[in-house]
Design brief:
Blueprint: E1 13-18, E2 23-25, E3 29-35, E4 42-47, E5 50-56, E6 61-67, E7 74-82, E8 87-96, E9 98-104, E10 112-113, E11 118-125, E12 132-135, E13 137-140, E14 148-151, E15 156-159, E16 166-172, E17 176-177, E18 188-194, E19 199-206, E20 218-223, E21 231-238, E22 241-250, E23 257-263, E24 271-279, E25 290-296, E26 299-306, E27 317-322, E28 325-332, E29 338-339, E30 346-347, E31 350-358, E32 361-370, E33 374-379, E34 383-390, E35 401-406, E36 412-417, E37 423-429, E38 435-441, E39 444-451, E40 455-456, E41 459-460, E42 463-469, E43 472-481, E44 491-496, E45 502-506, E46 512-518, E47 520-527, E48 533-541, E49 545-551, E50 556-563, E51 574-579, E52 585-588, E53 594-600, E54 603-610, E55 619-625, E56 629-634, E57 638-641, E58 644-647, H1 648-685
Parallel strand pairs: 2-8, 10-19, 26-33, 34-42, 43-49, 50-56
Antiparallel strand pairs: 1-3, 3-6, 4-5, 4-7, 7-8, 9-11, 11-16, 12-15, 13-14, 13-18, 14-17, 18-19, 20-23, 21-22, 21-24, 24-25, 26-30, 27-28, 27-31, 28-29, 31-32, 34-37, 35-36, 35-38, 38-39, 40-41, 43-46, 44-45, 44-47, 47-48, 50-53, 51-52, 51-54, 54-55, 57-58
């Protein structure tokens, strides 16, 4: 059993089949397009009980092709199976009988010749099993002849096997009949058929025993259909030129021409040759004529042009000559392989001179011996130039622009750039030329080197090395603060703008530092002892330079004045000053309410004021400082009263109460005075 049928699923289905008609023949390409349930799951395709394809779906999609297997005529079920879920979908294909007819011919370049017998094979596939098929087989002579010959027996009988296959063999002309008698007396294409159109094919009959020959190979020529002892002329031409001619060749008693004593000349050119056989006295005039082409193809020559460093070279023109005559030209590609303008490089057996030219200069001459397919390297007199730019310490200098000028005969310029190791390699240069090398950085020239020839002691070499030293220059840096005073022990960092080498040094007591740096452009950065960047600038070091960097944020005096609500200075308060991530500095306010911090590096600073015995700051503020300055901090919650800090709210409350008491006192006083006045007025009235 191959698998147990299971219920179909809407997601396991066959959407289409090719051929869309569902009718096919053994060996036909069958394509199934469908889906399965399991994403990226395994599938199988069955042709009846035979697995013809299996694999994994692309997502849920299946698109698979297979050849219809040998099977007898009939209807067959094709099943698509989701292996993981054992769910199937089916379709069908009807296998029809297929007739094939062919002639057994020699393996190319050998071929059939006139007068040869030809074995013809008739096959049936997809037929009824264990049955008999009958057919008529015909052979037609080359055009323009219209003779057709049929098998001698009325019908050719083909017995099929249990899988519907069968075959039968006939020999032409022996098993065929017709008038005149069947033959292979003509050069050209013979047509063979089953029942005229059920199956067709062709075979070719020629004069020579092969369609291709190489130099010095013997050419066997055979022709039939001539009269007994008839004299014929064999002529072989190449283009309009006759290569060989023999006018006295005599046919045998049976009218057969056999000529086997001519060989391809040792200097034969590659190309198409023509053989022509004609009756010397026009006794036999064959239609079609005894004319046939053959080819001298040459052998594939895989030639790689290389320089003296064994590297492929593109653009080398190769000219091949034989006995002083040019026979082939080609140019090397990016892989160094030589190709002519059309097709591949081919040469026949022989010795050739090869002249290689590069940029109109001869770079090599040599012999090429061809005896068959040839693979060889041709070394050209081309040298690699290795330019290395280093600084005075021997380190390679990157990003150096190299302008290379060749002044020999045809001027030529190249512009290149050194790599991270300070190296430029220029491949395949003419060694006898004069070269001028200009080296520059940031478009500023610093070196010119002349190279007369790329040779060593008069000898050609694979590599010619040139070392160029990029000069170092003195960079004197003075570091001053905002008051034009030198800053000692400041860290000065000098780094090339391309991120190459860097130096760092501390300034002296005079605030200076000197660097010996390579020709280029640099970024200068100044840091204080706490690694805070004080300033940065850029400098082009194309000559000795003296540069002054002003660090206005360095060495500032900051005064923090703490006042109460009404602006009275408060003494004996703790004040902290902190810059960015540095450790905080502490001090106390004096009688004038000022806490002094000397030699501070400016920037963003935090100022915090603490009341005695309180851990958290009462007032905190961020201030940007770029010069010596006084920062006022107001403690608005307190007022200094008789040397004591009184909360403003309490003082105001007390003042309000006092004011109310005074107001009440005034009212009472007024009342007493008013009563006295009234009493006085009453007494006077009485």
């Amino acid at each position: 059993m191959f698998f147990t049928p299971s219920a179909k699923s809407a997601d396991v289905r066959i959407n289409s089949i090719i051929p869309t008609s569902h009718f096919g023949k053994v060996g036909d390409n069958v394509t199934i397009i469908g889906t399965i349930n399991t994403t990226d799951g395994a599938y199988r395709v069955w042709f009846e009980s035979q697995i013809v394809k299996e694999g994994n779906a692309a997502g849920s999609n299946v698109n698979v092709a297979f050849f219809a297997p040998p099977s007898p005529k009939g209807n067959y079920t094709i099943t698509l199976q989701d292996v993981a879920q054992n769910i199937n979908a089916t379709t069908w294909l009807y296998i029809q009988p297929k007739h094939l007819i062919s002639a057994k011919v020699p393996e190319s370049p050998k071929q059939l010749q006139e007068g040869n017998n030809v074995t013809i094979v008739l096959n049936v596939t997809g037929g009824e099993k264990d049955t008999v098929y009958f057919a008529n087989v015909s052979v037609s002579l080359p055009s323009p002849r219209n003779e057709t010959y049929w098998n001698k027996t009325p019908l050719v009988q083909i017995n099929t096997t249990s899988i519907g296959n069968g075959s039968v063999t006939l020999v032409y002309p022996n098993d065929f009949t017709g008038t005149p008698a069947p033959n292979t007396n003509y050069t050209g294409i013979y047509s063979i058929a089953v029942n005229k159109t059920l199956a067709t094919n062709t075979f070719f009959v020629g004069l020579t025993n092969a369609t291709e020959y190489h130099r010095k190979q013997n050419v066997s020529i055979k022709a039939t259909g001539y009269t007994s002892n008839e004299t014929v002329t064999i002529r072989i031409t190449f283009g309009n030129k006759t290569i060989y001619k023999n006018e006295s060749i005599q046919a045998s008693y049976e009218g057969i021409i056999i000529h086997e004593n001519w060989s391809i000349p040792g200097n034969a050119s590659i190309g198409i040759y023509k053989v022509n056989i004609t009756s010397s006295i026009n006794v036999t005039r064959k239609i079609p004529s005894d004319v046939q082409n053959f080819t001298v193809p040459g052998f594939a020559v895989n030639m790689t042009m290389k320089n003296l460093a064994d590297e492929p070279v593109q653009g080398v023109a190769a000219k091949f000559s034989e006995n002083g005559k040019s026979v082939q030209n080609g140019t090397s590609n990016a892989d160094g392989l030589v190709y002519p303008k059309v097709g591949n490089l081919k040469l026949e057996i022989g010795n050739y001179t090869c002249e290689a030219t590069f940029k109109n200069e001869t770079v090599g001459k040599g012999w090429v011996n061809v005896t068959g397919e040839t693979v060889l390297d041709f070394v050209c007199n081309l040298t690699n130039l290795n330019i290395r730019v280093i600084d005075e310490d021997g380190y390679g200098v990157p990003e150096v622009e190299i302008f290379l000028h060749k002044s020999y005969k045809t001027p030529e310029n190249q512009t290149l750039t050194t790599d991270v190791n300070g190296t430029v390699i220029v491949s395949s240069l003419l060694p006898n030329a004069t070269y001028i090398i200009n080296a520059s950085r940031y478009d500023v020239l610093f070196n010119t080197t002349n190279v007369q020839r790329l040779v060593a002691n008069g000898n050609l070499i694979a590599w010619f090395n040139v070392t160029i030293i990029c000069p170092s220059l003195t960079l004197q840096v003075s570091v001053l603060d905002g008051a034009n005073k030198p800053i000692s022990n400041a860290m000065v960092k000098v780094q090339e703008v391309i991120g190459w080498r860097f130096h760092e040094e501390n300034t002296t007591a005079e605030g200076t530092v000197a660097f010996r740096s390579t020709f280029g452009k640099y970024k200068l950065e100044v840091f204080d002892v706490d690694a805070i960047k004080l300033n940065e600038t850029y400098v082009s070091l194309f000559q000795n330079q003296n540069i002054t960097i002003y660090c206005i944020l360095y060495g500032l005096d900051i005064y923090v004045k703490v006042v109460d609500y009404v602006g009275q200075p408060i003494s004996n308060l703790n004040v902290t000053l902190q810059r960015e991530e540095l450790k905080a500095r502490f001090n106390q306010t004096q009688s004038d309410g000022v806490a002094t911090f000397n030699h501070v590096t400016g920037g963003n600073v935090w100022v915090a004021v603490y009341l005695s015995g309180v851990a958290e700051p009462y007032v905190s503020k961020k201030v940007f400082v770029d010069k010596s300055t006084t920062i006022e901090v107001k403690v608005e919650k307190f007022i200094l009263l008789v040397g004591f800090l009184v909360e403003t709210s309490h003082l105001i409350t007390a003042l309000i109460i006092i004011a109310i008491l005074i107001a009440i006192l005034l009212v009472e006083v007024y009342k007493i005075k008013f009563k006295k006045r009234q009493k006085t007025q009453t007494t006077e009235a009485e």
